[in-house]
Specification:
Elements: H1 2-23, H2 53-57, H3 72-90, H4 93-116, H5 121-136, H6 142-167, H7 174-187, H8 189-214, H9 225-241, H10 243-251
Helix pairs in contact: 1-3, 1-4, 3-4, 4-5, 4-9, 5-7, 6-7, 6-8, 7-8, 7-9, 8-9, 9-10
Bound molecules: zinc ion.
Length: 252
């Protein structure tokens, strides 16, 4: 029962972040005007704006113009619903608040980076605010946060510098370093190092697959935020079940 309530709440949070993902890169206000169909501009009444349900009932089409609704909407709602449901079902209350809020912000960052190759500073700041709350209320420990930031910023910063020295190309963006700061502060140093490895591996696989499908292009931009965010959230979830895995890795 709790699970369903928090899942549903998460889908509404996802619905809000869908608006953020759509409007923030366009520099539009997040609060007004009300949600409208991107195709016919008709504003969407609240009873047609129910997360997941409306999309399913309308078979993915706008009720007014029959224009297709982007799969982004149900996908972001579903992912947020699952994470909020899981977090509040599994974690102690204060940790669940931090983990779910931060995940929602991170998913929006990942989605925007995937679309326009940019990590929005406003969302980074929102993440920092959530983390400050976590430190002030003792949900995250100072040392864990500081070492995590070191791992999340210095390590990729070093790799960026090395890449530039060798290839004279900028591998990652400074947005990725800002994201590394948030992720490191949240998951801590060990999980952050794992996150960097896992994300690099996923990015490399994606780059190879895209190159095979679309042809080799050394200048094709590859957004890194989606891989970082996916890796960090996955490792965070797995580490809740298997602290021994992380412990063993520390022992290595
Ligand atoms: Zn429409």
């Amino acid at each position: 029962m709790d699970l369903l309530i928090f899942f549903t709440f998460g889908t509404f949070v996802g619905s809000f972040f869908n608006v953020v993902i759509y409007r923030m890169p366009r520099n539009e206000s997040i609060i007004k005007p009300r949600s409208h169909c991107p195709t016919c501009k008709t504003s969407i009444p609240f009873y047609r704006n129910i997360p997941l349900v409306s999309f399913i009932l309308q078979v993915g089409k706008c009720a007014n113009c029959q224009g297709a609704i982007s799969f982004q909407y149900p996908a972001v709602e579903l992912i947020n619903g699952l994470i909020w449901g899981w977090a509040f079902y599994t974690l102690p209350f204060p940790e669940a608040v931090i983990a779910s809020f931060l995940s929602s912000i991170l998913i929006a960052i990942a989605w925007i980076d995937a679309r326009i190759y940019m990590v929005p500073l406003d969302l980074i700041i929102a993440g920092v605010v959530v983390l400050l709350f976590a430190v002030i209320f003792g949900i995250l420990s100072y040392s864990q946060v500081l070492w995590g930031i070191a791992a999340g910023v210095l390590l990729p910063g070093f790799m960026m510098g090395l890449t530039w020295l060798v290839t004279r190309r900028q591998g990652m963006g400074f947005g990725d370093l800002q994201l590394g700061l948030i992720l490191g502060a949240w998951v801590g140093p060990i999980a952050m190092i794992l996150t960097l490895f896992f994300a690099s591996f996923l990015g490399l696989v994606a780059w190879i697959v895209i190159s095979m499908v679309k042809g080799l292009d050394r200048d094709r931009p590859l957004p890194f935020a989606p891989y970082l965010v996916f890796s960090a959230i996955s490792i965070f979830i797995v580490s809740e079940y298997s602290t021994t895995l992380i412990d063993q890795l520390i022992m290595l």
